[in-house]
Amino acid sequence: MTELIAVALFTLLAVISPGADFAMVTRSSYAQGRKAGLAAAVGIALGVQVHVLYTVLGIAVIISQSPTLFMGMKVLGAGYLVYLGYQSLTNTRRLTLDGAAASAASVMQALRTGFLTNALNPKTMLFVISAFTQVVQPGSSLALDFAYGAFMSVAHWLWFSLVAVFFSSAALRKAMIERQRLVDRVIGLALIGLGLAVAVTGMR
């Protein structure tokens, strides 16, 4: 029970801390509507499972013992954040309340972007590795480890679904779309800043 509480608190603190996932879900929700925001939340939850899988199967040990591989993963994740930020910063497509509804293709794109943002996110990588090495007891069963991993995914899905619902509300979407250039720039700069912070941290 103590271990479960520790995992729950660890996960809660990691999920609600601002980061690339939050910025990406916010943009999907206000720009394309609730369906896209919720799809992005599902993508993030699936992305968490990538980190859980290689951690539980022991690849995390290899990563932690290979500075070059670890650095490569951090640079790849940082580069993707900078890429997303650049896209938002240079976006020239104007949104309207009538034309901002998500199509099936844009919903799938939001899901894919959510998945890649999280799967390539060094913050989530470090969170999952830390949870299993610092909180979960050594020798725990594989079934229990994957159950903890499923809990982490569900927690991410629930939190970012709430974020999606909030930022896709009609009044807030209207206000954000009316200030689209400013919102896109703020989100773009936030993503680029997060990406550069990851890269700089990795070079120390």
From TrEMBL:
Q: Which domain of life is it from?
A: Bacteria
User: Per the annotation, which location comes first and is thus the protein's main one?
Assistant: membrane
Asked if the Swiss-Prot or TrEMBL record annotates the protein with the keyword Lyase, the reply is no
Q: Which InterPro entries match?
A: LeuE-type
The subcellular localization recorded is: Cell membrane
- What's the short name of a Pfam family annotated to this entry? LysE
| PANTHER family to which the protein is assigned, alphabetical | ARGININE EXPORTER PROTEIN ARGO, TRANSPORT PROTEIN
* Designated name of the protein: Lysine transporter LysE
Task: Name the source organism.
Answer: Pseudomonas plecoglossicida
Q: Where is the organism placed in the taxonomic lineage, from the top? A: Bacteria, Pseudomonadati, Pseudomonadota, Gammaproteobacteria, Pseudomonadales
